[in-house]
Design a protein that fits this description.
single chain, about 625 residues, alpha/beta, five-stranded mixed β-sheet, two-stranded antiparallel sheet, 30 helices
Length: about 625
């Protein structure tokens, strides 16, 4: 049986006819493919029936508006052809050697800024690039890459243009949002300049965004009035209104939360519906303050570490050598930093792990009053038991702290973690009163050690006292969150949460809504199968509300959900920015300009990608000199 030959279109030598432009508004692209001048769709095969079918099915309105043979139609087609010619010439121009070098310069500068690398390193990157090209492609290709402009000044200009492009994208999306939330915090950089970071969280129609609204350098005082005025100017420059703010989260400083003189108080005078929030992470740290039974121990442990690391460089070197000779798991102790959230727990854990080695090191040191004092602490069974408990409880607190950190964490998720920990404290108290200490393995091991005789009741009394204090702190600081938990529960589990009067009341307490419309929507929402199916097919509760919002079937409920999901739960994003700032504006770059610092912070924190095509348009490109 003979095999029939397959038909190949490219061998049929089909030709595009000039009259088809007048008849069907098509032109030829490249060598063989026709393109519609109206919608720019390309037809794969040059056949009159294909062109006619496309024109008649998709452009009936054009046919009636511009009748065949009329002068109006000829002028319109000429205009479309001119636009097409201009567009293709721009594309050809954009592929010139100068433009390619400029775009490469933009892309390298973007990577440098994104990774917080100094501008002066751009020249080092170029040198590495040239050496790589020399090896991979030969000497003849080096000259082409030498033309890429990557000087210090050029990288600085590129950074500014890239940051402006990111800022324009942010402003464009913000202008289409009806509501957003702010996170504001202030810290001091290496040159003692107060830096106010303001982040915005909003829904752009597809996803939730967290972006830097602005970094404001405050060279004088940092009062509530000054901070409010600076943020008001910032909002005005971005063309957004205070009236659209849903909530503001701060670190709880008086300049931020004071009802009369603070930032939040002044904002509420303009927009009374703003929901103020004290950073949930800061609150948990404040809850963990030690009681009088444990404060002296932490103070002595801190002094011990400072004695070992800061008494002299020789003592520190001897300690590290001593630990290394013993094949210890760790070769150094950690310094305590009160500003860092996890520092306290990490310090205590390291001292506990090295307690025996440190005691041995102190014994072999020269006789010293301080040495004997610290040695007594490490050999006191009661002090060791207290240290063991602090190691255990701060391991839980640090785990909680870490669970609250991260970008795009919603207030629902943060509240869930905090209230879960609050319930754990109840079990801790019951366990300690029962004398089991099952939740505190380090303390249990210490108490049951027969080599260290200790009155278990004394330690349990101190432990119970601290746990009760911790419970009271969590209750007082998170009372409002616990009250609103039914709202967060509804957002996370809308199908299993009952529609109760309490839920309606808490929603009304936050947002000015029509109660009648809300109740009617709630009734439909709770029984519609389409809602249930959508929730089952959604990846998480956030994507469920996003998709439901697009359907526009429950406008009141979905608007409330989107508003709550735009709320920041903590100032973590501000704190992480301050950490990045210590890398960007360091000792060797302490004279950095304020606008350059803001540009670098914006690029390093953003989730946007630069619009390189937009950056390249309408600019003159140059080779490197």
């Amino acid at each position: 049986m003979s095999c029939s030959k397959l038909r190949k279109v490219e061998t049929e030598n089909r030709q595009f006819k000039a009259e088809w432009t007048e008849q069907f508004c098509f032109t030829i692209v490249g060598l063989s493919k026709p393109m519609c001048l109206i919608c720019n769709e390309v037809i794969s095969v040059v056949k009159v029936c294909n062109l006619k079918r496309h024109y008649e099915s998709k452009h009936k309105e054009f046919h009636s508006k511009f009748p065949p043979g009329s002068s109006l139609r000829q002028r319109k087609i000429s205009s479309l052809q001119f636009s097409h010619t201009q567009g293709t010439s721009m594309i050809r121009g954009g592929s010139s050697a100068q433009d390619k070098c400029t775009e490469a310069s933009f892309r390298v500068s973007w990577i440098l800024c994104k990774n917080m690398i100094p501008f002066t390193h751009a020249e080092v990157v170029k040198e590495c690039m040239l050496e790589s090209v020399k090896v991979m492609e030969g000497e003849e290709s080096v000259n082409k890459y030498k033309k890429i402009p990557l000087s210090n000044d050029t990288a600085t200009r590129r950074c500014k243009e890239l940051a402006n492009n990111i800022s324009c994208q942010l402003v464009s999306e913000l202008s289409q949002c009806n509501y957003f939330s702010l996170a504001a915090d202030e810290s001091t950089d290496i040159s003692d300049t107060a830096q106010l970071t303001v982040f915005v969280r909003f829904f752009n129609g597809e996803r939730f965004m967290e972006e830097l609204l602005g970094l404001v350098s405050l060279h004088g005082r940092t009062t509530g009035e000054i901070i409010f005025n600076e943020i008001s100017k910032l909002l005005a420059t971005k063309n957004v209104s205070i009236d659209n703010i849903v909530s503001v989260v701060t670190d709880g400083a008086p300049a931020m939360i004071s009802e009369k003189e603070g930032l939040v108080g002044r904002m509420k005078q303009i927009n009374s519906s703003i929901i103020p929030y004290h950073c949930i992470i800061h609150n948990t740290v404040l809850c963990a303050k030690l009681s009088k039974d444990f404060v002296p121990l932490l103070t002595e442990i801190t002094k011990l570490v400072n004695f070992l690391r800061s008494k002299s460089a020789l003592t520190h070197r001897n300690l590290k050598k001593f630990l290394n000779d013993l094949d210890s798991e760790f070769t150094d102790v950690l310094l305590y930093n009160n500003v860092r959230w996890l520092s306290k727990g990490q310090l205590l854990k390291r001292v506990w792990d090295l307690r025996k080695e440190i005691a041995l090191f102190l014994e072999v040191m020269d006789t010293s009053g301080k040495r004997d004092h610290f040695l007594n602490i490490l050999q006191d069974p009661y002090q060791l038991a207290r240290l063991a408990f602090l190691v255990d409880i701060f391991s839980y607190l640090n785990h909680l702290n870490l669970s609250l950190q991260g970008k795009y964490k919603t207030v629902c998720e943060l509240s869930e973690s905090v209230l879960s920990f609050k319930k754990k404290i109840e079990f801790f108290i019951q366990d300690s009163l029962g004398g089991n200490l099952d939740f505190f393995s380090t303390l249990k091991e210490c108490v049951e050690n027969k080599e260290m005789p200790i009155d278990k009741e004394v330690i349990i009394h101190e432990v119970s006292g601290y746990l009760n204090k911790l419970k009271s702190e969590f209750h007082a600081r998170f009372m409002k969150i616990e009250k609103k938990y039914i709202v967060f529960q509804f957002l996370q589990s809308p199908l299993t949460t009952d529609i109760t009067p309490q839920l309606i009341h808490e929603l009304k307490d936050w947002f000015p809504i029509d109660e009648v419309k809300l109740k009617l929507e709630m009734c439909d929402f709770s029984v519609q199968l389409s809602v249930s199916e959508l929730f089952k097919t959604s990846t998480d509760y956030k994507s469920f509300w996003i998709e439901l919002h697009k359907t526009k079937t429950f406008p009141v409920i979905t608007e409330i959900a989107i508003k709550i999901l735009t709320m920041f739960g903590s100032t973590w994003i501000c704190e992480s920015t301050f950490s990045a700032m210590t890398t960007i504006k360091c000792k060797t770059r302490s004279s950095m300009r304020d606008d350059t610092l803001e540009n670098l912070i914006r690029i390093s924190r953003t989730s946007y990608e630069p619009q390189f095509t937009e950056l390249m348009r309408n600019r003159t490109s140059h080779f490197s000199h």
